[in-house]
Amino acid sequence: AATINVTDWTPIAIQALRGRLSLSQSRLAVVLDCAVRTVTYWESGAKYPSSKYRALLDKLSASLPFTEAGF
Predict the structure, then answer these.
(1) Which of 35, 54, 29 is nearest to 21 (CA)?
(2) Distance between CA 63 and CA 9 in Å, rounded?
(3) C-beta neighbour count of 70 within 10 angstroms
(4) Is the Cβ–Cβ distance between 7 and 61 less than 8 Å?
(5) Phi/psi-derived region of residue 33, left when phi > 0, alpha when psi is between -120 and 50, beta in every other case
(6) pLDDT for 23-45, tens place per residue?
């Protein structure tokens, strides 16, 4: 199946990925090994993921079939 990597991790893109993975903010934080507050900041647009976390989000996104990625 085709996959897509999102390099511009906007708040909406992060929320969409989390929804497609059926993860709460808390669970996504565990998966990414970051604070829940960090995920909250990303999803509110207060902060944006560093290159380390963008790469991890890319990998999570790539693990979903394109039709499920929601992007």
Answers:
(1) 29
(2) 16
(3) 16
(4) no
(5) left
(6) 999 999 999 999 999 999 999 99
What are the helix (H) ranges across 1-71?
Answer: 11-20, 25-32, 36-44, 51-62, 66-69
Total count of residues recorded for the chain: 71
> Residue 23: helix, strand or coil by DSSP?
coil
With 0.70 as the threshold, say if the pTM is over it: yes
Place of tokens 């992007």: 71
pLDDT at 31: 96
d(CA 42, CA 64): 21
- When pLDDT is averaged across residues 8-19 and rounded to a whole number, the result is 94
Let me know: does 5 contact 45? Beta carbons within 8 Å: no
